[in-house]
């Protein structure tokens, strides 16, 4: 590539790809951990694998690398406050929050659009992030809750599209 690589322009271009917002949770040596994440994606159906990436500057990265399991919560519309709570670096992210306990003793949040309880599968070096691939052991979804969206550095909402026929899964073979 020639010329200077413009990182801000790169980020803006990536922001044109809308994502949902997830909060990953785990418990490591008795400490509850939670982190807001938009880098979640599906990876494999068989085996059931998903992926997410964590910035190497994250204070809790060494603990995420030790975790025996994680829960990935897909936030629903109206859960921006939960997203902001788990995106902060300071303070106790868990103060006053109610949760249940799932596989691997992992905290489970309420009111989400979907949840995946996972075990670690692989962790890869990936530039300034670590790429986590996780095996899904149990999941639940609430189709009545619309997901919270994130695009261009802002939260957004899905517009009603119930009048349109779903295009997925496509009637083709891969
Ligand atoms: C919408 C949104 C998406 C985010 N996605 C990611 C992500 O995919 N990976 C990541 O490492 N940090 C992401 N962050 C930032 C982390 O949530 C934040 O840096 C982290 O909670 C800090 O953790 P620490 O207390 O361990 O340093 C995101 C923040 C927001 C608000």
Any chance you could write out the topology, listing elements then pairs?
Elements: H1 7-14, E1 19-20, E2 22-28, E3 31-37, E4 41-44, E5 49-55, H2 61-66, E6 70-74, H3 80-87, E7 100-101, E8 107-108, E9 114-126, E10 129-141, E11 148-151, E12 154-157
Antiparallel strand pairs: 1-11, 2-3, 2-6, 4-5, 5-10, 6-9, 7-8, 9-10, 11-12
Bound molecules: flavin mononucleotide.
Sketch the major β-sheet: 7 strands, antiparallel
**Global Rg:** 17 Å
Q: pLDDT below 50 for ≥5 consecutive residues: which ranges?
A: none
Distance between the termini: 33 Å
Structural class: mainly beta
CATH architecture: Roll
- What is the topology, as strand order, of the major beta sheet? 3-2-6-9-10-5-4
Mean pLDDT: 94
What is the H/E string?
HEEEEEHEHEEEEEE
State the helical fraction. Answer: 10-25%
What is the tally of helical segments? 3
In the CATH hierarchy, what is the superfamily?
Answer: Electron Transport, Fmn-binding Protein, Chain A
Keywords for this entry:
mainly beta; 174 residues; 13% helix; binds flavin mononucleotide; 7-stranded antiparallel β-sheet; Pnp Oxidase, Chain A; single chain; 3 helices; 12 strands; 3-stranded antiparallel β-sheet
Descriptive overview:
This protein has 174 residues and is mostly beta strands. The chain has one domain: Pnp Oxidase, Chain A (Roll), CATH 2.30.110.10. Strands 3-2-6-9-10-5-4 form a seven-stranded antiparallel β-sheet. Strands 1-11-12 form a three-stranded antiparallel β-sheet, with no helix packed on it. The longest helix has 8 residues. The model has no long low-confidence stretch (mean pLDDT 94). The site of flavin mononucleotide has 17 residues, from strand 3, strand 5 and helix 3. This is Flavin reductase. Pfam families: Flavin_Reduct. It comes from Pseudodonghicola flavimaris.
């Amino acid at each position: 590539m020639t010329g200077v690589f413009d990182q801000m322009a790169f980020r803006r271009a990536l922001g044109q790809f809308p994502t949902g917002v997830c909060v990953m949770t785990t418990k490591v040596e008795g400490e509850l951990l939670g982190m807001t994440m938009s880098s979640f994606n599906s990876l494999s159906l068989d085996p059931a694998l998903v992926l997410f990436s964590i910035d190497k500057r994250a204070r809790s990265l060494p603990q995420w690398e030790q975790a025996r399991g994680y829960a990935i919560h897909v936030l629903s519309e109206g859960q921006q406050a939960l997203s902001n709570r788990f995106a902060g670096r300071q303070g106790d992210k868990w103060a006053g929050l109610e949760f249940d306990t799932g596989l691997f003793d992992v905290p489970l949040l309420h009111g989400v659009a979907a949840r995946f309880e996972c075990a670690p599968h692989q962790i890869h070096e990936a530039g300034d992030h670590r790429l986590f691939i996780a095996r899904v052991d149990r999941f639940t979804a609430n189709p009545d809750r619309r997901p919270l969206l994130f695009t261009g550095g802002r939260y957004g909402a899905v517009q009603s599209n119930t009048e349109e026929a779903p295009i997925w899964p496509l009637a083709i073979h891969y």
